[in-house]
């Protein structure tokens, strides 16, 4: 009797997963790229850095070399203890379109990236703001142009893709890239569906006046993470938000080099999701829960050999639907090399997320760097 009930629950879970992949995530993966008009609007690129001296040396020249007629770079030094400030100053001596914002430590905002970012936004000369991190590199010299061209009279928020650089013979790197891909497919799809809920600070653009109309980060300043996703969740609507997935618009950063560091990073990111709007929490939570239940029931039903032929057929059907959608997404987002590994990575990621959720119930990460 119990085995029968588990089988029927399994079929319901398969149906739920199919609905997400076929009717939500396909919205992005089957979306055609459309050409946007080059606008050449003045843009302020804002980079907040804390102890990023080596990354600034390596990646800042790639921002400076952007093929765009009118942009400034606002470098925010968040009280670095290394040579970050000196590196910034060395670049300002050679490039007039760079300005530095020096942040003095304040106990109330210790470990909170939103405070230095706010100061950088206030210092920006232009209304159109483009954000990335100090450890990110744009994939091309057309990054600013590609992102900025998506601003219109009605679209004041542009969600971009921030990928993870590949490493040979690294299973962890594949897992991080797969998680990044899956997250991007989700937030691009929901935005295309008319329900934008998050973006990533590695590649995000919005108008300065949108920031101040929303009182900046004040509604969630007490939460040390979420300068990107919580802000987007707060202000994004179907009318003011668009997505940019032109391959020239991508940025890439190095993934974490140990499972422990990655788990800590994801714990910090995950705690912000409980502050999302209720409809987003419900839809995302239902998806992740159905993923976990799918894998648990698949294992249990195979071990117990309950309706084995049907179970295997349903597993194949679910994986087929998932792979078709995600392979299309991987091609769009330049992650073709993950295709062979996707089933294994999906299984491993689901249980990694369970570990992260459990750890966050015990304690919370304390700061952004």
Report the top-level CATH class of the largest domain: Alpha Beta
How widely separated are the two ends? 52 Å
Number of helices: 12
Strand content: 5-15%
The low-pLDDT segments are none
Question: What's the helical proportion of residues?
Answer: 40-55%
The name CATH uses for the topology of the largest domain is Spore Coat Polysaccharide Biosynthesis Protein SpsA, Chain A
Number of domains: 2
- Report the structural category: alpha/beta
| Average of pLDDT | 92
Task: Name the CATH superfamily classification of the largest domain.
Answer: Spore Coat Polysaccharide Biosynthesis Protein SpsA, Chain A
Count of β-strands = 10
Largest sheet features: 7 strands, mixed
Order of helices and strands: HEHEHEHEEHEEHEHHEEHHHH
Strand order, sheet with most strands: 3-2-1-4-8-6-9
Which descriptors would you attach to this protein?
single chain; 369 residues; Spore Coat Polysaccharide Biosynthesis Protein SpsA, Chain A; 2 domains; 3-stranded mixed beta sheet; globular; glycosyltransferase; membrane; glycosyltransferase activity
Structural topology:
Blueprint: H1 2-29, E1 43-49, H2 53-64, E2 71-77, H3 84-92, E3 98-102, H4 114-123, E4 128-133, E5 136-138, H5 143-148, E6 157-159, E7 162-164, H6 171-192, E8 204-207, H7 208-213, H8 229-235, E9 241-243, E10 251-253, H9 259-270, H10 278-304, H11 308-332, H12 342-362
Parallel strand pairs: 1-2, 1-4, 2-3, 6-9, 7-10
Antiparallel strand pairs: 4-8, 5-10, 6-8
């Amino acid at each position: 009797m119990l085995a029968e009930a588990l089988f029927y629950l399994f079929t319901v879970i398969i149906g739920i997963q199919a609905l997400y992949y076929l009717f939500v995530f396909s919205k992005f993966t089957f979306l055609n790229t459309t050409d946007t008009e080059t606008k050449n609007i003045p843009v302020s690129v804002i980079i907040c850095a804390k102890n990023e001296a080596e990354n600034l040396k390596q990646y800042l020249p790639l921002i400076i070399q952007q093929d765009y007629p009118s942009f400034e770079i606002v470098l925010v030094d968040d009280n670095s203890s290394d040579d970050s400030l000196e590196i910034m100053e060395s670049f300002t001596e050679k490039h007039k379109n760079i300005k530095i914002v020096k942040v003095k430590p304040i106990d109330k905002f210790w470990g909170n990236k939103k405070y230095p970012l706010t100061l950088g936004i206030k210092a920006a000369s232009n209304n159109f703001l483009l954000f990335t991190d100090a450890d990110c590199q744009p994939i091309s010299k057309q990054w600013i142009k590609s992102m900025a061209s998506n601003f219109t009279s009605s679209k004041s928020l542009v969600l971009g893709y921030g990928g993870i650089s590949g490493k040979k013979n690294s299973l962890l790197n594949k897992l991080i890239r797969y998680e990044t891909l899956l997250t991007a497919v989700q937030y691009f799809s929901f935005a295309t569906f008319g329900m934008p809920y998050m973006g990533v600070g590695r590649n995000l653009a919005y108008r300065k006046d949108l920031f101040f109309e929303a009182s900046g980060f004040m509604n969630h300043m007490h939460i040390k993470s979420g300068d990107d996703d919580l802000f987007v969740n707060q202000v994004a609507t179907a009318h003011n938000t668009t997505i940019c997935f032109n391959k020239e618009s991508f940025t890439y950063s190095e993934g974490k080099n140990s499972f422990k560091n990655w788990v800590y990073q994801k714990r910090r990111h995950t705690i912000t999701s409980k502050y999302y709007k209720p409809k987003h929490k419900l839809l995302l939570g239902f998806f992740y829960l159905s993923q976990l239940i799918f894998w648990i029931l698949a294992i249990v039903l195979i071990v117990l050999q309950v309706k084995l032929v049907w179970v295997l057929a349903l597993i194949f059907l679910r994986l087929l639907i998932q792979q078709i959608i995600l392979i299309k997404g991987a091609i769009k987002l330049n992650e073709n090399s993950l295709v062979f590994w996707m089933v294994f990575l999906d299984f491993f990621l689901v249980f990694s997320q369970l570990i992260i959720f459990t750890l966050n119930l015990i304690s919370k990460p304390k700061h952004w760097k």
